[in-house]
Write a structure and sequence with these properties.
Helices cover 63% and strands 1% of the residues. By secondary structure, the chain is mainly α.
């Protein structure tokens, strides 16, 4: 006669169900605390699924073929590594899917870092809404271009530098150190995180050369973050060395393969469009061999991008008829003469472009690169001769994914969403910029901030200083709405941190004692 074995203490029988129930309750509690962020992530996921369905296998731009074949030194090609790695095992559709996952991943990382630094859950959710819902971000994630990887490297580098151990007594998702809770000792950054963050941020320059502008913000943050001056200076030196490491590796490989030890030659010649558009050719003094570079008024009206790359630009004969080194030297000389003889004209044109980020609506200004390049269309768009229909079909036949197609109903929805307000408003970006600046100033001048406010202010300083130079450096060459996208992962979090700093200071002043 069979007997039923009784469950004794420690037998494990009857314990699985309470343990499972405990896990479910924990998940429900977390979902309840972070419901707004989860809702935004769900909306971002749905929008990205729509983009993947509407534009198959991916969107192709003028420069896409540079990263498939040969950029001829015009841009760093660090993007070519992950691109070709994915294409080795999959196709263009998978590349787009991975880039959309990067977009979602950036939002999650920003949210977690802000919570760890002490930002409230609803403000942290506000900080990730732009990168999740902005249609221009969605469009660039679908495109075979390096922009998303550049953003992801910025976010990863900042997260490494800013990640903060959870305060004692803080529950998961509470936002780290809250008023009345213990704060982790110190706000400095460890040697290990300095080196790791430097390598990641340095690697961003191999994807987009403007990433070189991230070195100074990192050094300032390390110096301000605390510790003795010797440790701070030592960490700043380590930041410089680690930042330079991936750049030196890239340049060395470039030298071995092409004989050129550089990221690209864009730094030498890309100022031409800006300088030529601003120059007063009637009064400037130029040597005879540079006079042909000065455009007519009609040519200037076409803007810096056309002056740099257009077929009818006055710079084209120099590229066509002279050795590259000689052409680069003449272009650099022309740029120098415009800048030194007519600095106010250059500064005025540059300032007009800088403030365009804060415009109420998004449209193409005179001489700007057409914003339609970054807007969803209801048909397949090609850019001959570089990315013509034949070139794209040859690429999809080689790397897979099928010929480009557009699912018109979903594409029409995405276009309407984008044109009818599905982007981060300029005035909101202005608010975030002002708040980020205020929080950064607090980190620099208010030495008596309490530890929670100090954590917030230091994080604000790093995010703000990382976003501002990248955007300002991009505008030095030309204004393009595409180049403004890093603001979503730098200035927006900086603004939220700045608001949190201001709120914390106000609460502290109102508190008795």
């Amino acid at each position: 006669m069979s007997q039923v074995k009784q469950a004794g203490p420690g037998s494990g029988v009857g314990q699985a169900e309470p343990r499972r129930t405990g896990h479910v309750d924990a998940v429900r509690a977390a979902a309840s605390r972070h419901w707004l962020a989860i809702a935004l992530l769900a909306a971002g996921l749905v929008l990205r699924a729509c983009v993947l369905l509407a534009y198959r296998p991916a969107l192709f731009f003028v420069d896409s073929v540079r990263y498939l074949y040969n950029a001829e030194g015009m841009d760093p090609v660090g993007y070519k590594g992950p691109l070709r790695a994915i294409l080795f095992v999959a196709n263009f559709g998978t590349v787009a899917a991975v880039q959309h996952l990067l977009g979602l991943g950036m939002a999650v990382v920003i949210y977690l870092v802000l919570l760890r630094r002490g930002v409230s859950r609803w403000l942290a959710a506000l900080a990730i809404a732009p990168v999740l819902l902005d249609a221009y971000q969605l469009q660039i994630e679908q495109m075979i271009m390096p922009d998303v990887w550049f953003e992801a490297l910025i976010v990863a580098g900042l997260a490494i530098l800013l990640w903060q151990p959870r305060a004692r007594g803080a529950t998961p998702g509470s936002g780290g150190a809250q008023p009345g809770r213990a704060v982790p000792p110190g706000t400095g950054v460890s040697w290990r995180r300095v080196v790791a963050g430097g390598i990641v941020l340095g690697a961003s320059a191999t994807v987009a050369q403007v990433g070189e502008a991230l070195l100074l913000p990192m050094v300032i943050y390390v110096l301000v973050a605390g510790g003795s001056w010797r440790r701070a200076v030592g960490k700043a030196a380590a930041a410089c060395a680690s930042f330079a490491l991936p750049i030196l590796v890239y340049c060395t490989v470039s030298f071995l393969l092409t004989g050129a030890f550089f990221l690209s030659h864009s730094g030498v010649t890309s100022f031409y469009g800006r300088m030529a558009a601003a120059a007063d050719c009637a009064t400037i003094k130029l040597p005879p061999d540079e006079r042909g570079m000065c455009p007519t008024r009609a040519q200037q009206a076409k803007g810096p991008d056309w002056l740099e790359y257009g077929d009818g630009s006055p710079i084209r004969p120099y590229y066509a008829d002279l050795p590259r080194g000689e052409a680069d030297s003449l272009i650099a000389g022309f740029n120098h003469r415009v800048l030194t003889q007519q600095p106010l004209r250059v500064a005025e044109a540059y300032a007009r472009d800088v403030v365009k980020l804060f415009a109420l609506t998004r449209e193409t200004g005179q001489g700007d690169t057409s914003i339609s390049r970054w807007q969803f269309q209801t048909k397949v768009i090609y850019y001959p001769p570089w990315t013509s229909e034949a070139v794209v079909k040859a690429a999809t036949a080689r790397f897979g994914g099928g010929a480009p197609t557009v699912w018109r109903p979903v594409a029409a929805f995405l276009r309407a969403y984008q044109l009818d307000g599905g982007y981060t408003p300029g005035p909101l970006l202005a608010l975030f910029t002002v708040a980020g600046l205020a929080g950064s100033v607090a980190a620099l001048v208010r030495r008596r901030l309490d530890p929670p406010a100090r954590q917030l202010a230091l994080a604000c300083l790093l995010c703000f200083l990382s976003g501002a130079p990248v955007l300002l450096a991009s505008d030095l060459f030309e204004f393009s709405w595409r180049y403004q996208l890093p603001a979503l992962v730098t200035l927006v979090p900086a603004g939220v941190l700045g608001i949190s700093v201001i709120a914390r200071i106000a609460r502290t002043r109102r508190s008795p004692g």
